[in-house]
């Protein structure tokens, strides 16, 4: 079990990719705190995941500094340490560039980027103190996106936030490297989460997704969890400041691929 006795925090873990990462970490031997703002789903996730290992749900709006402080305190109270942070919490608000409301722009950047900064800073401080006391360095994983590289015209704040996430990964990696703390990112492509649920019922939308995906299928949250498990483990011990793209081949593609007609 590659993460045995490690303590991990996964934000935005009441469902989707965050939930899958929490489940994988538990299966790999870690103790996990799942953080989210959806208390009903978070508490249900805690119940479901108990069969895999030690898990706690903590309410946390990552955009609020006090909530982040409480998350750190609750994790230390429950498990006594923090070895791994996954900044997965994120939201999407669509809108054309010329019509986008300022409040919506601020809300997405506040959760997706500021929230990752606040969590990284707070938990890195704990990790640095531990290293200076003779302990082992920790690992931070940021959830980016293929949208950090290409742009979608009606996903303005989301695309900007993920571009910023890649830079946060780099600057945090450089800042924390002297302590041995590693910071890496994951950039998913089209993954079967609630955000992509419409492709199940909309044939045209599904065809568009598959036409830009050389592997010819939508990815599963568990496949992103596998990348997170690798980055959290000693198998990636010489990697920092990198973002790994799990996108079915989408980023190298500069055209569309043929898609078989569905019945």
TrEMBL record:
Domain Ketoreductase: 6-189
GO molecular function: oxidoreductase activity
Superkingdom of the organism of origin: Bacteria
Record's keyword annotation contains Hydrolase: no
Recorded coiled-coil stretches: none
PROSITE patterns, alphabetized: ADH_SHORT
Matches recorded under Pfam families: adh_short_C2 (PF13561)
Keywords: NAD, Oxidoreductase
Tagged with keyword Mitochondrion: no
Alphabetical list of SUPFAM superfamilies matching this protein: NAD(P)-binding Rossmann-fold domains (SSF51735)
Family: Belongs to the short-chain dehydrogenases/reductases (SDR) family.
Protein name per UniProt: NAD(P)-dependent dehydrogenase, short-chain alcohol dehydrogenase family
Organism for this UniProt entry: Stappia indica
Origin organism lineage: Bacteria, Pseudomonadati, Pseudomonadota, Alphaproteobacteria, Hyphomicrobiales
């Amino acid at each position: 079990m590659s993460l045995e006795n490690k303590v991990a925090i996964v934000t935005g873990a009441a469902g989707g990719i965050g939930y899958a990462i929490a489940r994988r970490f538990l299966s790999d031997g870690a103790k996990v705190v799942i953080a989210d703002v959806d208390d009903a789903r978070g508490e249900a996730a805690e119940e479901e995941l108990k069969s895999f290992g030690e898990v706690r749900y903590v309410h946390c709006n990552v955009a609020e500094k006090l909530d982040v402080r409480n998350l750190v305190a609750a994790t230390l109270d429950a498990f006594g340490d923090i070895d791994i942070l996954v900044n997965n919490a994120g939201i999407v608000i669509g809108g054309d560039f010329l019509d986008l409301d300022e409040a919506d722009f601020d809300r997405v950047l506040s959760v997706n980027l500021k929230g990752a900064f606040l969590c990284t800073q707070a938990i890195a401080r704990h990790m640095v103190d531990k290293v200076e006391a003779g302990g082992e360095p920790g690992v931070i994983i940021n959830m980016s996106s293929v949208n950090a590289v290409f742009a979608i015209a009606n996903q303005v704040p989301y695309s900007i936030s993920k571009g910023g996430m890649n830079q946060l990964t780099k600057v945090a990696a450089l800042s924390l490297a002297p302590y041995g703390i590693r910071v890496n990112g994951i950039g998913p492509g089209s993954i079967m989460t609630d955000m992509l649920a419409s492709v199940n019922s909309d044939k045209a939308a599904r065809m568009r997704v598959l036409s830009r995906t050389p592997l010819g299928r939508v990815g599963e949250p568990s496949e992103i969890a596998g990348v997170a498990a690798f980055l959290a483990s000693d198998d990636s011990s010489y990697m920092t400041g990198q973002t790994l793209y799990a996108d079915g081949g989408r980023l190298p593609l500069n055209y569309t691929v043929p898609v078989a007609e569905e019945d």
